[in-house]
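Researcher: Here's my situation. A collaborator sent me these components and asked whether they could plausibly form a single complex. I don't have experimental data yet, so a predicted model of the whole assembly would be a useful starting point for our discussion.
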Amino acid sequence: MYYIHTISSISNQDSFRNNDVYSSLRKFDAENDVVAPDYKEFIPRNALRRLSPILRMGLTCAMECQKNTNAEFDSIVVGTALGCLKDTEKFLTNFITSTSDFLSPTAFIQSTHNTIGGQISLGLSNHSYNMTHTQNNLSFEVSLIDAMLCINDGKKNVLVGAAEEKIPFLENLQPNIVADTHPLASGASFFVLTDEKKSIGIKKVDALFNIQSVENEIKRFLATENLTVNDIDLVLTSNNIELSFEKTIHYLQHTGLHYSASAFATHVGHDFLKSNPANNVLVVNHLCNDKLGLILLQKG
Amino acid sequence: MSDLKQTLKEQIIEQLNLEDITPADIQDDTPLFGEALGLDSIDALEFIVLLEQNYGIKIADPSEGREIFQSVNSLAAYIEKNK
Amino acid sequence: MEIFITGYGLISSIGIGADETILSLRNEKSGITKGSNDFSSKYLVGEIKFSDNELKERFGIMQNCSRTALLGMIAAKQAFEGHSISEEIKTGLISSTSVGGMDVSEKEFRKYLQDGKQDLSQYKHHSSGVSSEQIAKELGIKGFVNTISTACSSAANALMMGARMIQSGMLDRVVVGGTDALTSFTINGFKSLMIFDEDWCKPFDNSRKGLNLGEGAGFVVLESEKSMQLSKQKAVANLSGWSNASDAFHQTASSPDGQGAQLSMTEALKVAGLTPDDIDYINAHGTATPNNDLSESQAIKSIFKENIPPFSSTKALQVILWLHRVELKLFFRFLQLTMDICIRI
């Protein structure tokens, strides 16, 4: 079991500094991309002026997690499918349209995927292991796998999370990238995994490719933990599943569509276990056709 | 010259995204890379872009910038000299 | 648990495959020449002098893909030669890239900005994860796929992740490495940072001014002992130590004392159970920027003190931006340490 010490999410929901995100879930608000806190309270003015929304979200969640953790993180693992899109688009536009030999470097510097993890290490003056995974809809799941390996390697406080940023241009591309039609959104969720016993943890994570049947994979996954569909108190899923679960939440209806929404679903699953007489929560991420992410949360 | 300095302050705020800072907050002799504004080496590159785009002045070697970018005074003097 | 390296492949401006590459290195033949694309023709770059179509034809690749994915497929296929997919060996692919399919996106986006026309379907190649999934498909790997994107350290991190996954038992065999095509995006990016040398780069030279950019891919196959018994492949080297640490100094600059590099070298030696005296050669990052080479030299000094082993940067001959410096080093037949990885041969 990989215990969860603390979580911080910024999303379309009222999730930041909310102890029970499950109970306060509401429908997706198309008027607002995310419910953001006042970033000036978290990030020094000098750093903030350069940061795009994805960096603001990621750094703020990481700082909030650090505030709730007594020790410094000894690993920082970040997942992002599409990374810092706003700065990528800005720098592309800049060098394609510019006639000058001199280009503003800031957008280029902040366009790489690892800027999120880099800003976190800089913001926290943290010299530990720093990794960035980018694997489409499974970016959060592969990051979790890395974080669990860190705990196996003897690390004690592992920050792991995922973040995505919506830009208007992405709406043009949506039909070419993903079959899902939920409105696009942004979001970030960060967790601290610890080797110390806590009330709730992540029991198992799978990132599967080239799958034939979601239903069979779920049954196989649960069987490895001696569980069946009937043992699952809540399933949080991106798509319809032809299995009958006790309780189902279609999480994209709350987060909107982004590749790392399963990280937010994991946050909801954690809060559900905390406040309900339940033992097992399953997060099913089947956003892309033959790829499947499965995350099993349990009470410790 | 004072018009140039005022314009420069506005351009610096825009180029460097200095949120919450107004031209009045920057004195002509405020050290740009000191505590007050807390600028760094990336900002030095942004200054080079600013000079080229607004005044057509090209600085090829970033280390030349150190003295030029000390303050609004030194920037304005350099622009006057090289226009 | 021992991690064995049982295959390797690479493509860069100085050669396709190990033999060509070693020959170029021995003869000090540089791959850095004036670019042949619209966006690279003004600069000295480490370009692979074959078009996408020429490469696809030569290596029998049918997939519609970015150049980044294509270079990765060529190197990964070489590395995986002699290996076959088997139910008994849990096999994965961990690739890495800094720009992914940017070579495709920037062309479309340019058309969009200039004529308002673009082929939206081409942007499906943008995501870095897509390039890795396509490389896995080319090799017939259906299991775990992952992409790491940490700029210059990406491929080293892919090796490290692969080794840890084998040690944990999640995988028995994993193809690891990195790939990046030369793009206008990166050329303009490094130009904007003003660390782009218009002449040949000069790593560790007093007169060094900055880097040249290039393209390429490199992959190795990592296996557990159990996997090697089944695959019947021979080990050419061991991967014995690794580490990743953060300098946390500045977004674009290394600390003057190379703290992050010191931390990772110390930890990599510890993981390998070696001391600095055991190291016979260091292949350095050596980007030829004034800041990097100084910081790296300080870090090497602080770890190796008076007994600094021979070290070099291959950047002057073969500039492969960001990624796969680690793979090249396999062929030097030394005990090696990089900033991140120990390879025992």
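Model: Some features of this prediction you could bring to your collaborator: The beta strands of chain A are 2-10, 75-79, 129-133, 157-164, 187-194, 200-208, 234-237, 248-250, 280-285, 292-299. Chain A is about 35% helix and 20% strand.
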